[in-house]
Amino acid sequence: MSTLTIPRIELPCQSTDNDADLWFADQPSQLEEAKSLCRECPLQTACLDAALEREEPWGVWGGEILDRGVIIARKRPRGRPRKREGLAG
Questions:
Q1: Rounded to 5 degrees, what angle do the CA atoms 46, 60, 48 make?
Q2: What is the rounded distance in angstroms from the CA atom of residue 64 to the CA atom of residue 70?
Q3: d(CA 34, CA 26)
Q4: Which of 75, 76, 78, 8 is nearest to 35 (CA)?
Q5: How far apart are CA 9 and CA 85, in angstroms?
Q6: 14 alpha carbon, distance to own chain's centre
Q7: Which of 10, 25, 38, 69 has the most CB atoms around its CB within 10 Å?
Q8: Residue 1 has what pLDDT?
Q9: ∠74-79-80 over CA atoms, to 5°?
Q10: One digit per residue, pLDDT tens: the chain, 89 residues?
């Protein structure tokens, strides 16, 4: 009787080379790094679809940033937004 060996898939979000907190970081640059790592993942589409279905509250899922269950283009850094030139005074 032979045993079936299933090859292990290397997922960027579960790799010991990557910090798991990267996918839930506060810094926009770190979230962009997580998104770039997702581009090589074989489960990218399935991950994003499942996260949208679950309405994940936040984080990078399937190469996209989610906020309150919705894809956003980019996360703004914490703090007060900059004033636009021409609008002051």
A1: 15
A2: 10
A3: 12
A4: 75
A5: 50
A6: 13
A7: 38
A8: 62
A9: 100
A10: 667 887 788 899 998 888 989 999 999 999 999 999 999 899 999 999 999 999 999 999 999 999 999 999 988 777 777 777 655 54
Closest CA to 77 of 21, 13, 19, 30: 30
Known binding residues for [4Fe-4S] cluster are 13, 38, 41, 47
Phi–psi pair at 27, nearest 5 degrees: -80, 125
pTM for this prediction: 0.77
DSSP sequence for 16-56: TTS-GGGGG-SSHHHHHHHHHHHTT-TTHHHHHHHHHHHT-
Half-sphere exposure of 65 (CA within 13 A, CB side): 19
Return the biggest CA–CA distance within the chain.
Answer: 82
In terms of phi and psi (left: phi > 0; alpha: psi -120 to 50; beta: otherwise), the region of 63 is left
